[in-house]
Amino acid sequence: xxxxxxxxxxxxxxxxxxxxxxxxxxxxxxxxxxxxxxxxxxxxxxxxxxxxxxxxxxxxxxxxxxxxxxxxxxxxxxxxxxxxxxxxxxxxxxxxxxxxxxxxxxxxxxxxxxxxxxxxxxxxxxxxxxxxxxxxxxxxx
Length: 141
Fold this sequence. Notes:
The protein is about 35% helix and about 10% strand. The protein has helices at about 45-55, 100-110, 115-140, and strands spanning about 15, 60, 80-85. It contains three helices and three strands, in the order E-H-E-E-H-H. With about 140 residues, the protein is an alpha+beta fold. It is globular, with a radius of gyration of 19 Å.
């Protein structure tokens, strides 16, 4: 279907980014678009939005789902629309020339978010507590 507008500044002409595109847990057949080494584990729309907003991009989130996403969970919902070209056709930011550039940047910056660094620290302590629980069960037998 042809676009109703040729103006790159219209919201319908913004590029779409689904979290699936940069998810290291997904295969290429499931929708990942960048190499798994550079991808992020289970990114969310909020994280993508935060990273791109901090970079100075014009971004908004839609409540949509990727067609290949079988999990209907709220965590996997969402689509981020990003403006990479201005009304006159020039790029908004010189470092983002294509949608791939945007995906690589987001995948690089999400692990550096404060929410990600705090979660990984908390995850280590909870896994240690879980191991302690297993040890005590073995002693009771």
